[in-house]
TrEMBL record:
Protein name: Cytochrome P450
Keywords per UniProt: Heme, Iron, Membrane, Metal-binding, Monooxygenase, Oxidoreductase, Transmembrane, Transmembrane helix
UniProt-annotated binding residues for heme: C414
Membrane-spanning residues: 6-29
UniProt-recorded Gene Ontology molecular function terms: heme binding; iron ion binding; monooxygenase activity; oxidoreductase activity, acting on paired donors, with incorporation or reduction of molecular oxygen
UniProt-listed SUPFAM superfamilies: Cytochrome P450
Entry's family note: Belongs to the cytochrome P450 family.
Cofactor field: heme
Keyword Lipoprotein: no
InterPro entries tied to this protein: Cyt_P450, Cyt_P450_CS, Cyt_P450_E_grp-I, Cyt_P450_sf, Cytochrome_P450_monoxygenase
Biological source species: Coniosporium apollinis (strain CBS 100218) (Rock-inhabiting black yeast)
């Protein structure tokens, strides 16, 4: 028998040996071997991949982590290299404001925008990119945009009166709020809006693109090679896929805006920094930080981050207000983003007698925090009055708001929190003051967290929140 005919068997045998050695190392030698958790999850990343991609349609790992917590306690090894902690009072240790913690490298490729502040894993690079954006998103800056946001809200209300009131024609809240969020952020980012709020039936290619981008999150996170592979395939071929076609269109739209801005002579651009990208272009960032590619990444990131989160929050709040008329005008944000966002410390963490080695990704998340029955008893019942009168947490000392982490905490906390609050206040107040709504073939399962696609998504066959305007 020729020697070369044995090669496949030699390769297969070596690979098998390598896998066995890897599993033995992960289970018995790795510095994380002492942490509790399912052995299979510690042995292979495929465990997480199975829950994110396959089990019950995917997006199920966040919920699986909650089950692990119930079985193994407040600290769990959730995959070969990462720990998850479920202890409300420890949140501020991991998400400390000025701590020099990195984020996950694999997240850089998640939305194919590695150069955006949102994706930047390295703490120092993130700090510089973030610092130039911060001034645009302060409370006072956002308040100055209040009249513009109110004008969009008024446009929506006028349409509700003209096209829906008194008719048996349900309004799709998910789509309607997506249009609001999209118009607000594109206008504030570029000084141009897409007029999504005027679109037929609140359905637009832009919102479809954003929705698909969010849905692709597990595919691109679990298989790091997907994004580089996609980048090798011409867009016109990628656009044949119904998943990627709207994403490509969405990205091209934003790329076009950036190109337009860069084409303007610098003098024309210097209009006092009215839009996010004027602020960026007039900032003191070095030239290599202001390339077309980097600005395109920042554009997708800022528009994307503003979109699904705000749409979800508005839809959920309005559903609960309509379903419970006695809670009119009091609101609480649900989970925010449910997917964990680990931090990597250059120093050790100490938790519950464990020493967590430097360089280990450690996370908590808003799903575990907001469903913690010690801090939020009866957490699945919508009782927004619990937030009235500056309440204390169950220990009677700390403010309850310390545990409200829908916008995250620390150096990577939500950049657009004030903008989101502004949209929520103006939109919800206008809708609830001006209209009487009735839910149409909609119940809690249309808003409750079923699967995670970065943000909490309702059951797959949900048609969204639909209401009749009386
Ligand atoms: C209700 C609405 C919103 C919720 C619940 C929300 C939630 C969050 C959360 C939890 C994070 C932190 C992720 C992490 O720890 O890694 C985040 C980051 C971010 N959010 Fe929001 N967000 C909302 C609206 C917005 C809006 C309107 C904008 C508009 C610009 C925005 C822009 C961003 C950006 C750019 C980041 C990344 C910040 C960084 O990495 O430094 N978000 N958001």
């Amino acid at each position: 028998m020729a020697v070369w005919s044995l090669l496949p068997a030699v390769f297969a045998g070596s690979y098998l040996l390598y896998c066995v050695a890897l599993v033995v190392h992960r289970l018995y030698i790795s510095p994380l071997a002492k942490f509790p958790g399912p052995k299979l999850a510690a042995a292979t990343q495929w465990y997480e991949t199975y829950y994110e991609m396959l089990y019950n349609g995917g997006g199920m790992f966040t919920k699986r982590i909650k089950e692990m917590r119930e079985q193994y306690g407040p600290i769990v090894r959730i995959n070969p290299w990462e720990l998850h902690i479920d202890e409300p009072d420890y949140y501020e240790t991991i998400y400390a404001p000025s701590a020099p913690y990195d984020s996950l490298k694999v997240f850089e490729a998640r939305f194919n925008i590695p150069k955006a502040a949102f994706s930047t894993a390295d703490h120092t690079a993130h700090k510089h990119r973030r610092a130039v954006l911060n001034p645009f998103f302060t409370k006072s800056k956002i308040q100055a945009h209040g009249p513009f946001i109110q004008s969009l809200v008024d446009t929506i209300c006028a349409r509700l009166t003209a096209e829906y009131a008194g008719r048996q024609k349900p309004v799709k809240f998910n789509g309607m709020f997506a249009c609001l969020a999209g118009d607000v952020i594109t206008n504030l980012a570029f000084g141009k809006e897409y007029d999504l709020c005027l679109s037929e039936d609140w359905e637009t290619p832009f919102t479809k693109g954003m929705t698909n981008l969010v849905s692709s999150t597990h595919l691109t996170t679990q298989f790091e090679w997907v994004v580089p592979l996609m980048n090798c395939i011409p867009d016109r071929i990628m656009a044949m896929s119904p998943l990627f076609q709207p994403i490509i269109e969405f990205r091209h739209g934003l790329n076009h805006r950036i190109k337009e801005l860069l084409k303007k002579r610098p003098k024309e651009r210097d209009t006092g920094g009215d839009t996010v990208f004027e602020v960026l272009l007039n900032s003191k960032l070095p030239r290599e930080e202001l390339t077309e590619e980097r600005l395109q990444h920042e554009a997708v990131s800022i528009v994307g981050a503003a979109f699904d989160t705000t749409r979800q929050a508005l839809t959920m709040v309005c559903f609960h207000i309509i379903a419970n008329p006695d809670i009119y005008q009091r609101l609480r944000i649900g989970y925010g983003t449910v997917q964990r966002s680990p931090r990597i410390s250059p120093r050790e963490f100490h938790f519950n007698g464990y020493t967590i080695p430097p360089g280990t990704p450690v996370s908590q998340d808003s799903y575990h925090m907001h469903s913690n029955e010690r801090v939020f008893p009866d957490s699945t019942t919508y009782r927004s009055e619990k937030w009235l009168g500056d309440p204390k947490s169950p220990d009677g000392v700390k403010q309850l708001s310390r545990y409200m982490v829908a916008f995250g905490r620390g150096a990577r906390m939500c950049l657009g929190m004030q903008m989101a609050y502004c949209e929520l206040y103006l939109m919800v107040a206008s809708l609830m003051r001006r209209f009487e709504f009735e839910l149409f073939e909609t119940d809690r399962s249309d808003v409750d967290f079923y699967r995670d696609a970065l943000t909490p998504q309702a059951k797959p066959d949900s048609q969204g929140v639909r209401v009749l305007v009386k």
